[in-house]
Design goal:
Number of helices: 11
Strand order of the largest sheet: 6-7-8-3-9-10
Strand content: 25-35%
Structural class: alpha/beta
CATH superfamily of the largest domain: P-loop containing nucleotide triphosphate hydrolases
Number of domains: 2
Mean pLDDT: 94
Distance between the termini: 39 Å
CATH topology of the largest domain: Rossmann fold
Helix content: 25-40%
Shape: globular
Order of helices and strands: EEEHEEHEHHHEHEHEEHEHEEHEH
Low-confidence stretches: none
């Protein structure tokens, strides 16, 4: 087992009568990508800000690299990189100068800093934009610049908060590949996102929190085993009455059925011939469909089961 990079024990943060974080304990290990998931208001941001000593918490202990984390623990902070969801770069500086500035906060040696800046530029593939200003960049390029600024000093521990929000698929793929390279090069990463497919691709381990408490943790595969459903069948069908939706809910082994105007999704808790039975059901009721397919439960299914489907502010 690798060494512990972050140790959180009994972390509690109270706001008057609200416990934003309630006796939270977990570890993050060296060279691990840990996904920290939770709906809005679950306590993710409070937890991260507490770990970084950006927020004074009510009780608990936080150690990073085996040392107590404090607001003035600069020896620890120099080995941490933080990339928040909001892009934070200087509009009056070029791409190169932005990265050089943030790297220079930690690396004083000019030759080493120059190499580090070039390494960061290569990692996020923005070499063709060194002389561009942020206002000249697309959203995807701007996020890649933001990441380069946060990791240019080669931190051992990196916090990434929603790094792929509102970017094109190409930029997202580049960012995810860059995160893998950071881990492969020895960095430990704490990753937050609402994109469950990213978590499945990237994270070695996942923690789901809600109402300030850990409600599940483990690998993606182990968490999927928590799902109450064993199979989902999706039917692309453009017309389905409420009557037939109710009939679908009563199919053998079905636990629920949902129709969004285009797709009928039926969940099952068992059965071996569900897809064949579904096709028979469609034919018997003279329902025309475009395609039908079966899936195992996803991490998104587990997340919704554990945290609920109601909207959060």
């Amino acid at each position: 087992m690798y060494d512990k990079v972050i140790e959180v024990k009994g972390l509690t943060k109270e706001y008057k009568e609200l416990k934003a974080v309630d006796d939270l304990s977990f570890d993050v290990y060296e060279k691990e990508i840990l996904g920290l998931l939770g709906p809005n208001g679950s306590g993710k941001s409070t937890t991260i800000n507490s770990i970084l000593s950006l927020l004074k918490y009510s009780s608990g202990t936080i150690n990073i690299f085996g040392k107590e984390m404090k607001p003035d623990a600069y020896d620890i902070k120099r080995d941490i990189g933080v990339i928040f969801q909001e892009v934070a770069v200087f509009q009056e500086l070029t791409v190169y100068d932005n990265i050089d500035y943030f790297c220079g906060l930690y690396i004083s040696d000019k030759n080493r800093r120059k190499q580090y800046v070039e390494d960061a530029i290569e990692l996020v593939s923005i070499g063709n934009y060194k002389k561009f200003y942020p206002k000249q960049l697309s959203g995807g390029l701007l996020r890649r610049l933001n990441i380069a600024c946060g990791i240019a000093h080669k931190p051992k521990l990196i916090f990434l908060d929603e790094p792929t929000v509102a970017v094109d698929p190409q930029s997202r793929n580049n960012i995810l590949e860059g995160i893998r390279k950071l881990r492969d090069n020895g960095a430990t990463i704490l990753y937050t996102t609402h994109y469950m497919e990213e978590v499945e691709q990237l994270c070695d381990r996942i923690i789901i929190i809600d109402k300030g408490k850990i409600i599940a943790s483990g690998t993606s595969d182990s968490l999927k085993k928590l799902a109450k459903i064993e199979e989902k069948i999706t039917v692309e069908i453009h017309r389905l009455s409420e009557e037939f939706l109710e009939k679908a809910k009563k199919l053998e082994h079905a636990t629920d059925a949902f129709y969004d105007g285009k797709m009928l999704i039926v969940s099952y808790n068992g059965g071996k011939n569900n897809i064949a039975n579904m096709i028979d059901f469609l034919r018997q009721n003279n329902l025309s469909y475009l395609k039908v397919y079966s899936e195992r439960p996803s991490l998104n299914d587990v997340f919704l089961e554990l945290t609920g489907k109601e909207l959060r502010d």
